[in-house]
Amino acid sequence: MNHIDLTVLQQLHRWRAQGLHAVLATVVRTWGSSPRPIGAMMALCESGQTVGSVSGGCIEDDLLQRYTRLGEQMDHALGWAQPPRRVTYGVTADEAHRFGLPCGGTLELALEFDPEAGQLQQLIEQLLSGALVRRSVDLGTGGTTLSQTDTPQALDIDAHFLHNVLGPGYRMLLIGAGTLSEYLATMAIFNGFVVTICDPRAEYMASLQIQGVQRTAEMPDDAVTAFRPDLRSCVIALSHDPKLDDLALLEAMQSPAFYVGAIGSRRNAQSRRERMQEHFDVPTETLDRLHSPAGLSIGSKTPAEIAVSIMAQVIAQKNGNLETSH
Q1: Is 106 found in the same domain as 74?
Q2: pTM to 2 decimals?
Q3: pLDDT digits over 229-255, tens only?
Q4: Same domain for 155 and 73?
Q5: What 3-state class would DSSP assign to 213?
Q6: Among 3, 50, 176, 289, which residue carries the largest CB count within 10 Å?
Q7: What range does the domain containing 140 cover?
Q8: Angstrom distance (rounded) from CA 219 to CA 216
Q9: How do 156-157 and 161-166 pair as beta strands?
Q10: What is the DSSP string of 42-80?
């Protein structure tokens, strides 16, 4: 689940709690090129306000014309009291061009009318608590059920039900406070990650200026254990101190974290690899999970540039688009 999806649900809840009519649109299928992935969500209010996105803009405009006061009002006799609908955009080349879809692109949306405010609040509370929630929508009646699950799953839809597993959001644990940590944390927050910075060195933590991050002064390996990395987590060692980095990386590499990285030169990376094999008997396949030196090779020299290279590699790994690894 991306950070924007939670924002969509929160705004949708505010509208419904105020008694305003609203529609939740979810991308449920795509064919060919598509501007937004399956599961992307958008909400629109009867007043014409929107949050989120399901395309590059033209489909949003069409939805606004159909379902808000900016257009011709609801174009169906049932008005807002109708069951979910499935609509497809881009079936023909002319329609794809009209709606600004890439060549050959087609997408299908599920539209839910006036989702119940109380259940939206329950869903948001569960997501904010870190739960993984399966939201099931009866496409015949619009009835919705929530159940917690332990396994992330792709969105699934058939003739009768839409099942979408939401949350938890992506998380990042940074080992070592400093300028690079501040730059990287800022970029991660901008990309929807919840960031924790760990450093047991009081003087380093005291100089940390960034807001909006969680902080811990635990020893890094204990911090990794407490962090409980999952499939939506990444752990990155930035301290340059083997006493802090090594044990934390050992814990992280044995977790389900989708990305584990450490900064340093290639020589330092090789020395770390040899230490871990010699002193901890770490298998080669485990060490191969470690991105070190962390970051894509873009010739970065400054802390800001290094942060860009690391964040780009993290995002590529998250999106399954990382062709090479260290």
Answers
A1: yes
A2: 0.70
A3: 988 899 999 998 999 999 999 999 999
A4: yes
A5: coil
A6: 176
A7: 3-166
A8: 9
A9: antiparallel
A10: EEEETTS-EEE-SSSSHHHHHHHHHHSTTTTS--STTTT
Which H or E element spans position 277?
Answer: helix 266-280
CA atoms within 13 A on the CB side of 165: 13
Here the tokens at position 239 are 């301290």
Q: What is the CATH number of the domain that holds 198?
A: 3.40.50.720
Give the end of a domain, one of 112, 138, 166: 166
Q: Residue 49 burial by CB count (10 A; 0-12/13-18/19+): exposed, middle or buried?
A: middle
Question: Which tokens is 326 given?
Answer: 């260290």
Write out pLDDT tens, residues 85-126. Answer: 999 987 666 665 666 565 557 889 999 999 999 999 999 999
| Kind of pairing between the strands at 290-291 and 144-148 | unpaired
What is the count of structural domains for the chain?
2
158 CB-near residues (< 8 Å, 6+ apart):
none
Q: Which residue has the tokens 């992330």?
A: 152
Of 240, 248, 262, 180, the C-alpha closest to 219 is 248
